[in-house]
Amino acid sequence: METLVSVIVPVYNSEKYLNDCLESLVCQTYQTIEIILADDGSDDKSIEICEKWELKDSRIQLLRLKHEGVSNARNAGLSKANGKWVLFVDSDDYLKHDAIEGMVDSAEQLKFDLGIFDFYRVFEEKEKTDSFYVYDDIHFFDDEEKKELLSDCINNASFSSPGRSANSGVPWAKLYLRECIANKGLNFPYGIKRMQDMLFNLQVIDEMTKIAYVPKSVYCYRYNDDSACTRYSPDFGVTVEQVLKSLKDYIEIKKYSFLEQDYHIKSIKLFLEWVRLSVVAANDKKVSEKIAEIRNRAEVVHLSDDFAYINYDKLNTPQKVGAFFSHMKWWCILYFYYFVGRAIR
Fold this sequence. Notes:
- Mean pLDDT is about 90; it is low at about 160-165.
- The chain has 13 helices and ten strands.
- Strands 1, 2, 3, 4, 5, 6, 7, 8, 9 and 10 form a ten-stranded mixed β-sheet that branches.
- By secondary structure, the protein is α/β, with parallel strands linked by helices.
- α9 packs across α13.
């Protein structure tokens, strides 16, 4: 008898790609799945699309939720899941037709608690193989490597090869043993709009005993110019404060001093993201006001303290440039660096 897999899909205003996503799930070669669609109060045609698919396939269950964010949607899906394994799929992405079969085969063979798989990066409908780590074969993480895995979850540098931009803290392309999540009471932090998946996976990596990397591409991650990671975000500063507080609390409670450097590097990265998404992209302020805002925030968050822990190897090239300007307190140059970068994107 085949093992049941719970596929959780958080949905919010995803009408453009939702049919592609659901088509890839119902047509899997591995059929013993339940598909939980957690609609986060969509106000486009997403809910109609979900309802049509629910009528088509008895394996689909639609949860109609208030708009409270992706963490709430994923947690709602987890609460309804019955499978031995849990797989998260974003509603603008899709799976290869034999993805779940390959993941389950690996799980039965390797007996892991968490399986991390490779993926395809999709840009303009073209798929390019990508991976989280550089191992050529199956790899199990020992206790010391789990420390690096936690570090990598925060800053994506320890195991990743140069130039790879996927953050291993994402929930997709992973197969989770549901019993471990349930028994430990793990969930996505409520009320944090971004990077909640990183905070969730820190808990998962910390608690799960047997973690395996499997160099098998199963997931198709669609690069979206209009995703939350690329568009203007006036409240991103609030999100940064929430994430850094949660991360700091986690490190202090666990007494994980080996992650202290990662915390400060993450702080620098998020400062640069705030400049890019909240300041440069804003249209309601003069340039002089924006530069003053950057300078003031750097002082308020004590950015200079973070640079005592800087490791440029954990930054990609644009981040290295931005970090250098920030370290030198060249705020005007920093602003125009991101302004030009946004204009030519």
